[in-house]
């Protein structure tokens, strides 16, 4: 969950990074009393995420900047829509502009891409979820954006749930242990409330993973035929997740194979920033002569 602490910590760091000794341009160009009004305008269709982050960039720099008429996160918008209005000291509006846009453009990009995946599987019952393939330090923002787009979050971190991947299994079997025994021993050491997911890349691994007590089985990079076979073999005894090179072109067919969850790393590692602009007008009556 994106908290005020998360927002303020990241935005303060970004403001300091962008203007460690002030904004030389605005401070030299405008008198302190110069005023600016601006509008956050969509240049393309999309889904909003980062409303509070956008506001925080201005508020944390200067409490005299007012941000109003902001649409709610999760709102779908069209090119040309005004998403927010900003008013306040020109120096502060222009200093915070880039930081505010950097956050909201990237978050909207992730939300918009997620919404396209969610729309693509509508009616199938499959959930679209993200992964841990996030920008270091910004995971909570990107995962919030996924939820704004109608998706769901996978693990927030390694601390949230057990996920035994192919490399874990390679170490287990390389040491001479069986998959079944290792998973059962893992289960015995965990609290009963802890969810266990196991990744497989072949159909013949499924029976051992089920016997080991997996709650979710991830079918990684399976063909559509093998996905259908995997769903039939699991037969409701575990949640079925599909993963690996999922695209907008393939996701519908993957969903129709009968899986419960589709994890899409591209939601966070490949979403492009959405084209939003802050159109500013300046009252030059207070500008230095």
TrEMBL record:
Pfam families: QRPTase_C (PF01729), QRPTase_N (PF02749). Pathway: Cofactor biosynthesis; NAD(+) biosynthesis; nicotinate D-ribonucleotide from quinolinate: step 1/1. Keywords: Glycosyltransferase, Pyridine nucleotide biosynthesis, Transferase. Signal peptide: none annotated. GO terms for molecular function: nicotinate-nucleotide diphosphorylase (carboxylating) activity. The keyword Nuclease does not apply. GO terms for cellular component: cytoplasm. It catalyses: nicotinate beta-D-ribonucleotide + CO2 + diphosphate = quinolinate + 5-phospho-alpha-D-ribose 1-diphosphate + 2 H(+). Residues 111-279 form the Quinolinate phosphoribosyl transferase C-terminal domain. CDD domains: QPRTase. It comes from the Bacteria. Its EC number is 2.4.2.19. It is an enzyme of class 2 (transferase). One of its GO terms (biological process) is NAD+ biosynthetic process. Residues 23-108 form the Quinolinate phosphoribosyl transferase N-terminal domain. Involved in the catabolism of quinolinic acid (QA). NCBIfam families: nadC. Hexamer formed by 3 homodimers. Belongs to the NadC/ModD family. This is Nicotinate-nucleotide pyrophosphorylase [carboxylating]. It comes from Labedella phragmitis.
């Amino acid at each position: 969950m994106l908290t005020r602490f998360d927002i303020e910590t990241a935005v303060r760091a970004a403001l300091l990074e962008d203007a460690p000794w002030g904004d030389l341009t605005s401070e030299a160009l405008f008198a302190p009393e110069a005023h600016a009004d601006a509008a956050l305008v969509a240049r393309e269709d999309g889904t909003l995420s980062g409303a509070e982050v956008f506001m925080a960039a201005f508020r944390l720099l200067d409490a005299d900047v007012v941000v109003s008429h902001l649409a709610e996160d999760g709102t779908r918008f069209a090119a040309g829509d005004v998403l927010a209005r900003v008013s306040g000291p020109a120096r502060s509006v222009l200093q915070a502009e880039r930081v505010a846009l950097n956050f909201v453009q990237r978050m909207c990009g992730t939300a918009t891409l997620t919404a396209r995946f969610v729309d693509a599987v509508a009616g199938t019952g499959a959930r679209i979820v993200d992964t841990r393939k996030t920008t270091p330090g910004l995971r909570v923002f990107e995962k919030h954006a996924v939820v704004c787009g109608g998706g769901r979050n996978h693990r927030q971190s390694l601390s949230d749930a057990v996920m035994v991947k192919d490399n874990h299994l390679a170490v287990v079997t390389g040491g001479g242990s069986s998959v079944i025994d290792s998973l059962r021993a893992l289960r015995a050491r965990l609290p009963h409330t802890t969810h266990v997911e196991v990744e497989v890349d072949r159909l013949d691994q499924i029976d051992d993973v089920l016997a080991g007590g997996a709650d979710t089985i991830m079918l990684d990079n399976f063909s559509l035929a093998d996905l259908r076979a995997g769903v039939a073999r699991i037969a409701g005894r575990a949640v079925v997740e599909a993963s690996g090179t999922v695209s907008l072109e393939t996701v519908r067919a993957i969903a129709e194979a009968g899986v419960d969850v589709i994890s899409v790393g591209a939601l966070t590692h490949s979403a492009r920033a959405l084209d939003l602009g802050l159109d500013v007008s300046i009252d030059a009556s207070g500008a230095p002569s």
